[in-house]
Amino acid sequence: MRIFTLWLAILSTLAGPAVAQAPTPASADIEVDLELVLAVDVSLSMTQREIEIQRRGYAEAIVSDDVLQAIRFGGPHSQIALTYIEWAGPSSQRLIVDWTLVRSREDAEAFAAKLTARIEYPLPRTSISGIIDHTMPRFENNGFTAERQVIDVSGDGPNNGGRPVLAARADAAARGITINGLPLMTREGRYTQFDLEDLDAYYEHCVITGPTAFVIPVLRWEDFPDAVRRKLILELSDRRPAGATLQRVDGYDCLIGEKIWNRYYGDWN
Question: Do residues 183 and 215 lie in contact, with contact meaning Cβ atoms separated by under 8 Å?
Answer without folding.
Answer: yes
